[in-house]
Amino acid sequence: MAITFTMLFLGILLGFIGAGGSGFIIALLTVVFGVPIHTALGTSLAAMVFTTLSGAYSHYRQGNIDVKMGLAVGCFGAVTSFLGSGIAVWIPVDSLHWLTAGMLFLSAVMLLVRLFIVSRMEDKGAEPQRRLFMKAAFVGIVCGLLSGTFGIGSAPFIQLGLLAVLGLSVQKSVGTTMLVILPIALAGGIGYYFEGYFDMILLLQVLAGTMIGSYLGARFTNYVPLPVLKSAMVLTPIMAGFILLF
Fold first, then answer.
1. pLDDT at position 65, please?
2. Is the backbone of residue 225 left (phi > 0), alpha (psi -120 to 50) or beta?
3. What is residue 132's predicted lDDT score, i.e. its pLDDT?
4. What is the pLDDT along the chain (246 residues), one digit of tens a residue?
5. What is the DSSP secondary-structure string of 22-83?
6. CB 185 within 8 A of CB 53
7. Of 104, 126, 141, 168, which residue is least crowded by CB atoms under 10 Å?
8. First-to-last CA distance in the chain?
9. Is residue 3 within 8 Å of residue 202, measured between CB atoms?
10. Which residues lie below 8 Å from residue 31, measured CB to CB, with a gap of 6+?
């Protein structure tokens, strides 16, 4: 019950700022509740499948998803996410704590770039299909490997790839990221399951808290100034990274 209540409050925070929060889930499970980090990584990825489903459906109904591009990036990402889970099990526990924390700090930097620099970029327009396919493969392979190895959603990296590499608009990149995360998180979760680092009871506890909390937290988002929300989005992975270091 303690895990569920903790995830409930975390879910309220994450729903409030509109973040996936996989890094924070990993940090709390490992540091506060003593869950082995490999199990925490697998649980975090599996939880993302469910927490992003509603967001992806909502963005699809609003026309904010490039389905072909999202499936292309997601399918390549799923392959490397599965492979990444196999890489993670060979990384020593102490090293994995540091590496995952480092990825969370880098994620915060990517968020800064996306929120304050790349968000001003405009749609590049049509490109040859072959070139787009190669770019989609590149973005998917890199982001999937990061997700599978470190158990994070890689949303900032995916969004940057969709914006800067594939030339999608800001609105399309946000929605398409939700679609991309689904196969990446699913494949990574399956990979950790086959490696023996998957706890169904723990997953249900995490989902019960985060899904209810995210729903409640999202109701307050429109009442907060945009600069505060942007700052909270950047500070969240930084805080999670610091927790992992202790």
1. 87
2. beta
3. 84
4. 788 999 888 878 776 665 667 788 888 999 899 999 999 999 988 888 887 887 787 778 878 889 999 999 999 999 999 999 999 889 888 888 898 888 889 888 887 877 676 655 555 555 567 788 899 999 999 999 999 998 877 777 888 888 888 888 777 887 888 899 899 999 999 999 999 988 999 999 999 888 888 777 767 766 777 777 777 777 888 888 888 887
5. HHHHHHIIIIIT---HHHHHHHHHHHHHHHHHHHHHHHHHTT---HHHHHHHHHHHHHHHHH
6. no
7. 126
8. 24
9. yes
10. 243, 244, 246
Burial of 227 (0-12, 13-18, 19+ CB in 10 A): exposed
Q: How many CA atoms lie within 13 A of 113 on its CB side?
A: 15
Which tokens is 32 given? 């506060």
User: How many CB atoms are closer than 10 A to CB 32?
Assistant: 12
Note whether 213 and 80 are within 8 A (CB).
no
Alpha helical stretches, state H, 117-225: 129-150, 155-160, 170-194, 200-218
Q: Tell me which H or E stretch contains 3.
A: helix 2-17
Measured CA to CA, the distance from residue 159 to residue 173 in angstroms comes to 6
